[in-house]
Structure prediction request, 603 residues.
Amino acid sequence: MSVPTIKRTVDMQIIAEWVAPRSRVLDLGCGRGVLLDYLKQTKDVFPVGVDLDFDKISACVRRGLIAYQGDMTAFMQAFPAAHFDRVIFSRTLEELSAPGAVIAEALRVGKAVTVGFVNHAYWKNRADIFLRGRKPLNPVYTTEWFESRPTNPVSIADFEHFCASQKIRITRRAHLSGNWKTPCGFAPNLLAGYALYDLTR
Amino acid sequence: MNDADDDLLENTRSEPGEVGLVEPRDFIATGSFTFDNGQSIPGFTLRYETYGHLNAARDNAILICHALSGDHHCAGIHSLGDKKTGWWNNLIGPGKAVDTNQFFVLCANVIGGCQGSSGPSSADPRTGQSYGITFPAVTIRDMVRTQKLWLDSLGVKSLYAVIGGSMGGMQVLQWGIEYPSFVKRMLAMATTAREGAQAIAFNEVGRQAIIQDPEWNNGHYPKSGGPRVGLAIARMMAHITYLSDTSMDRKFGRKAVAAHHKPAPATDVSELSMEGVDPVAPATSFNVQFEVESYLRYQGQSFINRFDANSYLYITRALDQFDLASAHGSLETAFAKVEAVTLVVGFTSDWLFPPEQNRAIAISLLRAGKRVSYAELSTDLGHDSFLLESPQLYDLVRGFLN
Prediction:
């Protein structure tokens, strides 16, 4: 299975289970709208996506989705509290420069917030640092340091700590093993490759 | 979801063709029409063009709305020798983004205009004289309501889409508000739900240039005459607001005109000057020196040959007074009844109707619970960017319509 396909399906199925039918969903960093399109098809949601890139917005429009090109925080600030039933960050968190503030705004504008991210503390990433002394390089982290842009990787332990310190309630969590398919029930911060969280205030 | 690396756009496009020869027609409304300000006229004409065919269900019509200085001729040519195509020919045609094989595309000159539709330069049937400034004040809503009468007369049952940039975009929004169930899609580009002070200010300078020209004569002037100097200056100034610093610099820089043509300066200058209506003092040192000057003079000169000064006053007033927020209490309430799916497109270098004002339209529609997308194209061409030949823009429009 190629990595792009995994990226799509891993979130889609679990998030679709969490999303209520016909709810108002905001996908931040929606890309070309693959997830939103899936949620529209399977759950008949009111699909709203935000992204920075013109061509991605154009792809969303072609899919018949609602898409807004611009800054996600400024976008959320234009809406009253609880305007959306659910706000989704699917592999978006790592790209943000102030994720805490953005999540706080998402918790205001959304009744629930779903977050999906790659667990940076997965043992293979640790091994790259610990044994090779090198930046992780694998099908998930595909670029050498010199061809990467700044990202803000997060581990399961980091995220749990963040939620506890901010008094954010975790209502659901799903940890997936290194293949991003089977559930990972033991020592997730070490053994899980991917994590999904459902949050409320 | 970050999936930039997949979902490649399949290339299924056929080679686009041309609309080709077109001819304008007139819709003549014989009943009296009452304007927003309460005044009425005994009847009116709208000059229009159509491309493509209305289908049996009469639901494949796309209305194009033109901007301040535009007209009904938005695609095709009027004669085989015609070098100039309609103003949105790059977007409209067989196989193009607005596909005339699929859609019945229509465009009319607005009421108050001067390209064949009733306006200040038309004759008042009650007096036989031109209306001049006795023509009722025109609003964007008047433009839309008169066009609805025209579409009804053609048997159009609904609009698959209504599309426009700048003032055309204002009409698009008004269409969706005025006739919610009639309009299925709105596509508004480089527009605003209300102009900022700066845009009003520029329009006012244009109006003053016209009004202060003695030839304006309180709006009474013969068809061939009138405030040609004032109108040319208004156009020169307005034209700057449609461009950008970057695009003007790229096109003209500080290139001098005379230097290239030293051997025969006289012929060249007479070609570029405004034939006796040169607004600048004729002294040699104030003749055209820079290319940008000759360009603007040319724009002014060609405008006075096709545009009526009173129409310019009327239409700029309509632009300035358009204010959906104050007309309905708020922009969100203005859009409360809209049923159309909407796409708003802003352009990064547009400083006349800047991206923020386009964004505000999309946000208000969303807050009102409507289906609306917002895209922002990076260009450096200023307000006129919506007329740009951009495959990215074409793909967006095509994707929205299909």
Chain B touches chain A at residues 1-7, 9, 343, 359, 362-363, 366-367, 371-378, 392, 395-396, 398-400, 402 (CB under 8 Å). Chain B has two domains: 25-195+326-401, 199-309. Residues 1-14, 260-277 of chain B have pLDDT under 50 and may be disordered.
